[in-house]
Structure formats: structure tokens, C-alpha cells
Amino acid sequence: MSPIPTGRLFGTDDGTDLVLTRTFRAPAGDVWASITEPERTARWFGPWEGDAAPGRTVKVQLVFEEQQPWSDLRIDACEPPRRLAVSSVDEHGAWHVELLLEESDGVTELRFVQHLDTVDGIGEIGPGWEYYLDLLVAARDGSPAPGFDAYYPSMQAYYTGLTTSGD
């Protein structure tokens, strides 16, 4: 079965937000640990090192990327267990991401938001985040990790279409 794209685009005063969600049958604190503790982030994104605090920069290894590069990631906001905002500037541009958690009756929704200045490249960006979020799901529930080829290029048309559909 192929993964189904879930991302949506929302216009903002400053650009566009790409929003994807995943739901977990777990308390927010447990999901928070999956997105903030280095030994747990290593399972789906990559390990990180450094003094993690708002205004500080940590180094993150992108273990699911070619050549497993290390990248600087600035912690813009950290409000456990409900909001983590990070940013990075690299050769691909500036990235501003928020992970927002909301728990109700033992079920936690993770809302992933990338604040975009432009929708250029959304056909590559969207499938990439779908892949990483599904890696998070697999890491948490013990299912096999998906392969990136199930996401790209098959989801590219969906995401490119979002820029012309009025979402």
C-alpha cells in the first residue's frame, strides 16, 4: 500500500504554511520525548548534540539523507510538551518549523508546520516531510520503516497541485 499525502497549504500574512498531522495513542509527554530526546529522534530523524535551549543551536545528523550530513538547528521556542519551534539556514534556504502537540483523552495530535516564504520546491518538500513523519510513526509503533521511494516522486504532483488549487 502506498502512503497517502496529507499535507495542506495555508496562506499567512508572511507567506504560506505547510501543515501535516499525525495522531498517536499516547500522552503528549511521550510524543514530546520522541521529538526532543536525542536517542529517540535518532530512530526517525537523526541524533542531535549540544545544549538545547531557546536561542541556542544544536547539531543534528540527518541519518536518512544521503551521506548523513550534520546540520545546525536553532531552537527558537521550546514549551514542553506542546510546542517546539526550530530553524535552519543552509544551501537549500531558510527552514522555519514548528511541532505542535495537543492531547485529548490520551490521544495526541502532532501538527507539523513549516513556515514557507515561497512554495517553490513544494513538490519535493511535502513528500520529504510525509516520509519523516511516517518514520516517526514507525519508530513509535515498531513497524518497518518506509522507503523514500514510496513518497517521491509519487507525491510530487499532489503537492505541486496544492499551489494551484486555492488551498
Model description:
Strands 1-2-8-7-6-5-4-3 form an 8-stranded antiparallel beta sheet. It is of the alpha+beta class and 167 residues long. Helix 3 (122-141) crosses helix 4 (156-162). The chain is built from 4 helices and 8 strands.
General form: globular
How much strand content do the residues show?
A: 35-45%
Helical element count? 4
Radius of gyration: 15 Å
Structural class: alpha+beta
SSE layout and pairing:
Layout: E1 8-12, E2 15-24, H1 28-36, H2 38-41, E3 48-49, E4 57-61, E5 70-79, E6 83-90, E7 93-104, E8 107-116, H3 122-141, H4 156-162
Antiparallel strand pairs: 1-2, 2-8, 3-4, 4-5, 5-6, 6-7, 7-8
Question: What's this, in brief?
Answer:
With 167 residues, this protein is α+β, with helices and mostly antiparallel strands. Helices cover 24% and strands 37% of the residues. The model has no long low-confidence stretch (mean pLDDT 94).
